[in-house]
Amino acid sequence: MTELEKDIMNIISIAGDSKGKAFEALKKVKDMDFEGAKSLLEESRKLDLEAHKIQTKLITNEMDPEKENTPISLLMVHAQDHYMTSQLARDLVETLVEVFKYQGGK
């Protein structure tokens, strides 16, 4: 496996972990455990930042004129899809936590 393939697989794996944490947070909301949800969302955010660093490295390498042009592969597109959905899941769950926290406080 090449270094590029390892980086791409890491993005997929990390994004999956991030999305999992976001949905765990949503389950905490069902139990009115808003602090637990907030903690899981923070873990999700940290994972997304880790994936973002890898993504930035790959983009930077692709833009470097000194380096060989990186082919766009279906695997990379797949990784980007996972990364974007993990961010969307976290953002949506963060909003839902706030909505339910507000509703529960009444």
From TrEMBL:
<feature type="active site" description="Tele-phosphohistidine intermediate">
    <location>
        <position position="78"/>
    </location>
</feature>
<keyword id="KW-0808">Transferase</keyword>
<dbReference type="InterPro" id="IPR036542">
    <property type="entry name" value="PTS_IIA_lac/cel_sf"/>
</dbReference>
<dbReference type="Pfam" id="PF02255">
    <property type="entry name" value="PTS_IIA"/>
</dbReference>
<keyword id="KW-0598">Phosphotransferase system</keyword>
<feature type="binding site">
    <location>
        <position position="81"/>
    </location>
    <ligand>
        <name>Mg(2+)</name>
    </ligand>
</feature>
<dbReference type="GO" id="GO:0046872">
    <property type="term" value="F:metal ion binding"/>
</dbReference>
<keyword id="KW-0479">Metal-binding</keyword>
<keyword id="KW-0460">Magnesium</keyword>
<dbReference type="InterPro" id="IPR003188">
    <property type="entry name" value="PTS_IIA_lac/cel"/>
</dbReference>
<feature type="modified residue" description="Phosphohistidine; by HPr">
    <location>
        <position position="78"/>
    </location>
</feature>
<protein>
    <submittedName>
        <fullName>PTS lactose/cellobiose transporter subunit IIA</fullName>
    </submittedName>
</protein>
<keyword id="KW-0762">Sugar transport</keyword>
<keyword id="KW-0813">Transport</keyword>
<dbReference type="GO" id="GO:0009401">
    <property type="term" value="P:phosphoenolpyruvate-dependent sugar phosphotransferase system"/>
</dbReference>
<dbReference type="GO" id="GO:0016740">
    <property type="term" value="F:transferase activity"/>
</dbReference>
